[in-house]
Amino acid sequence: MTGHGKLTGKIALVTGASRGIGCAIAQRFAAEGALVVATARHVGHEGERGTLAETVAQIRRQGGSAIALAADLEDPVQRGNLVPQAEEAAGGLDILVNNAGMAEYSRIESMPLEVFDRTIGHYLRVPFVLSRAAIPLMRARGAGWILNLGSVTALSPSRPYHDFDQTGGATAYAAVKAAINRFTEGLAAELEADNIAVNSVAPSTAIRTPGSERYIPDGYPTEPVEYLVETALALCSVPARLRTGHIAHSLHFPLACGLDVHTLDGQGKLPPPIIPAWAHPGLIQSALPEK
Questions:
Q1: Which among 187, 179, 117, 176 is positioned nearest to 147, based on CA atoms?
Q2: Which terminus of the chain, N or C, has fewer Cβ atoms within 10 Å?
Q3: How far apart are CA 12 and CA 9, in angstroms?
Q4: Where are the beta strands (DSSP E) in 121-174?
């Protein structure tokens, strides 16, 4: 691990880091020199796939630094204690990645109220609580970055409606993801003067993860997670005065900015992204960042 990475000296708290997108972000940030506090419900054991212990072990095998910190974000006490515990364990906090969540799709007429409440809790309440706790810590350090995980489902369904829009059951989830985008934009305005950047990143199409694969049809073409992760890194390594309030998407952002996309260990490169024909048409015209 080199001593001059983009995040050298920074401390990043990444939620939902035991697998999927959170695990990938934790690896890439560590490869750029961050000390990563990886959190999920349970630590587990090294060698056990889909655990914090394995995420941390993988980071350390690649020469990075990471700490595993278990927290059940559905538990109000554990949720409230997470940011202070992370700061104490790592010695500070510069970056918060609000990634954790478990999507539960259901058509509105058949969705139990507790599922609706959990959806709001995972994707709006948790980012609110963790961001609120992180802000004073970042302000004390003179800068900070908050990154929220969005979703392309936050965009309005295109007409004529696709089968997924009609029967997929994503309406409540999508509505909360639209809310987190507006939360991101508003919080960016509140914190720009404090040099705290607030951005959102979402897949341009779909990324197959342990949490999402049950909603992705067999044979549906998905995108590599590395494009989203490189976008996440770009949104967490530039001062707020240069890049805040963006609702970015994994393929569109690197293409618009001319970013090189690296492997999770930072050692290799992927080809430039190609926007597929099935990407939401609204992404072509909106939310592209300035170069």
A1: 187
A2: C
A3: 10
A4: 144-149
Give the model's pLDDT for residue 3.
57
Q: Is 173 a catalytic residue?
A: yes
Helix (H) or strand (E) holding 269: strand 269-270
- Name the residue ranges covered by the structural domains of the chain: 11-285
Enumerate residues 6+ apart whose C-beta is below 8 A from 174.
151, 153, 154
Whole-number pLDDT of residue 96 = 99
Report the distance separating Cα 248 and Cα 24, nearest Å: 17
Residue in the block written with tokens 């199409």: 205
Catalytic residue among 105, 173, 220, 227: 173
Overall CATH class of domain 11-285:
alpha beta
Residues contacting residue 262 through CB under 8 Å, at least 6 positions apart: 28, 31, 226, 230, 268, 269, 270
Residue range 207-216: mean pLDDT, rounded? 75
Please state whether the predicted TM-score (pTM) of the whole model is above 0.85.
yes
